[in-house]
Amino acid sequence: MNEKPFVVIMAGGIGSRFWPHSMDAKPKQFLDVLGTGRSLLQMTYERFASFTSPERLMVVTQAKYSHLVKTQLPEIKEENILSEPLKRDTANCIAYASYKIRNTDPDAKVIVTPADHLILNESLFKARIFDALKAAEIPNHIVTIGIKPNRPETGYGYIQFIDGSDRVVKKVKTFIEKPNRELATTFLESGDYVWNSGIFVWKNESIIRAFELHLPELAEVFEEGKAYFFTESEGEFLKKAYSLVKNISIDYGVMEKSESVYMVLGDFHWADIGSWQKLYELQTQDGQGNVVEANALLYETNNCYIKVSPEKLVVVQGLDNYLVTDTGNVLLICKLDAEHKFREFTADAKSKKEDFV
Amino acid sequence: MNEKPFVVIMAGGIGSRFWPHSMDAKPKQFLDVLGTGRSLLQMTYERFASFTSPERLMVVTQAKYSHLVKTQLPEIKEENILSEPLKRDTANCIAYASYKIRNTDPDAKVIVTPADHLILNESLFKARIFDALKAAEIPNHIVTIGIKPNRPETGYGYIQFIDGSDRVVKKVKTFIEKPNRELATTFLESGDYVWNSGIFVWKNESIIRAFELHLPELAEVFEEGKAYFFTESEGEFLKKAYSLVKNISIDYGVMEKSESVYMVLGDFHWADIGSWQKLYELQTQDGQGNVVEANALLYETNNCYIKVSPEKLVVVQGLDNYLVTDTGNVLLICKLDAEHKFREFTADAKSKKEDFV
């Protein structure tokens, strides 16, 4: 038995709330949105590479993005780039990886992570992942990382935990969808709610058992993959499998139903870079609250995020709390908190011209 | 004596309130701002061409724009393109034209007009110009066209007239600079205030007499031009003349001082296309009050003017009463009524890069 865990990076999203920078042809996880010189996927890879060896590191993505993964992470073996034939939610994605891992090492422990998070204090982060790996040794235990909230954030899901005697590992009581401001404030004050990071740690057999219990149809479909994984027929099998299973998230399909979910409290600095607003908040704002990545002249303009290629001069007067960005093809001006509008923007833009999205 | 008047088109402005479309290299009078296929200068030329013959039509502009006049108005004789060596206000511009006309036809009548007005009801307009030409036959009479106001406009200068017995020609009492809203409302209600169109009609000797009376230094300098106009030395003379005279407008230098100013009431539809706001008002607005010259998707957006080349998709959400325009080099987002800010915009833009202005 290899003691090193598998790491599964989920990188299949389309990042529509980062449009027009995140495009269907190149979603946000493949972009250097923070200007670090590395894409979010590359930052995620580097964060987890020290936990394991490259042959135990998998990236699940949509088939159309597998070439991007290959280019950005040349260290990863081609068979470890799991290409989903359709865009599906996290339960499908995790099932695919889990049943494939079972073929290689049925006793493996697995860390599952989204590809679009920012994590600071990496040594604290590592310590908490090791705590989670330890907690996951108990059969059937599903372990997640909860992040101690520092504000009544309405953009994240929450986890309510039971504050037992174990200082490190807490039993999860319930998962809660993104709350409104009032509820988020109550959560923050109560102290037994944390942000749902979407990072999971388990023994591979524990999550497979959970699939069998809570999503038996899904389990049945992927169980049959055994004969196809790592063969030339894997792609064909997947097309069939993905057409059969329903689209469901791991939170909704497993976490909310399982009685064996535990949480390790993450005390590192964490952010889901899920929207322009989040990205804005992560950057250093100037004295007027503006984040300017542009050659810009601002007048009576506050709390704005201006991101335009420096060849263009941008002159903005009289805006408060707006995003202004231009990709060359698309100029977008909207309220910084307009993330709920992005599906509409991109759908309408697509109907104008496929290339715009 | 030739009965046809001279027409002098003043086209030397830089149109900074139309930036970034109006650029130092190509100011607004040379642009097709209304999308008619003709520049404002060409529209002005066509409006006045029927009053006279091409050899009696002059355009005064800055030397750096004379090639644009030549290209846009090939009908005009080269010696009738009056190239000013420096940007100077209207008194200088008119003095140059007047003293040059004196060399050709001292008895001429003259119509002076800006190059950036929109006039509808052209037959009414013609009738009023003929009224003015008739009124200008009286020696020393300076005649201007006043426009009946239809709203308490704060963007125009006003003329107060004395409502005498003559139905067509009124004596002017005073010229008033752009008023505030309250004053403009009083003007509108009183009925004896009209908009100052900047269109003048006079016998050439009448305005020269007025220069001698009210701007004697200016008169003295241009008087000397007699020996140089229509010769190779005209340019050299002008450089000297323009360096000697002070920069002053015809309104301030002559109109406000003269006792012989008369007004013909213009009952045609007139607009000074002096700003983005004015241009916006002239266009047909959609149901949300937007004027869209762009490939645009608008959400919760009202009373905006969106002008961007159609290759780019423009998505705007949550703006009210803004201008959004992009020339490729410059993206400008500002309040539609921010015309008082444009000098600052262009000065700051110029300090970034000369090309931006």
What's a concise summary of this model?
By secondary structure, chain A is α/β, with parallel strands linked by helices. Chain A has eleven helices and 17 strands.
Task: Give an overview in words.
- Two copies of one chain form a homodimer.
- Chain A has 357 residues and is an alpha/beta fold.
- In chain A, 31% of the residues lie in helices and 25% in strands.
- Chain A contains eleven helices and 17 strands.
- Chain A has a five-stranded mixed beta barrel with strand order 6-9-7-8-10. A four-stranded mixed beta sheet of chain A has the order 12-14-16-17, covered by helices on one side.
- In chain A, helix 3 packs across helix 6, helix 3 packs across helix 7 and helix 6 packs across helix 7.
- The longest helix of chain A is centred in the N-terminal third of the chain and has 15 residues.
- The radius of gyration of chain A is 21 Å and the shape is globular.
- The model of chain A has no long low-confidence stretch (mean pLDDT 93).
- Chains A and B meet through strand 13, strand 15, strand 16, strand 17 and helix 11 of A and strand 13, strand 15, strand 16, strand 17 and helix 11 of B.
- Strand 17 of chain A pairs parallel with strand 15 of chain B, so a sheet runs across the interface.
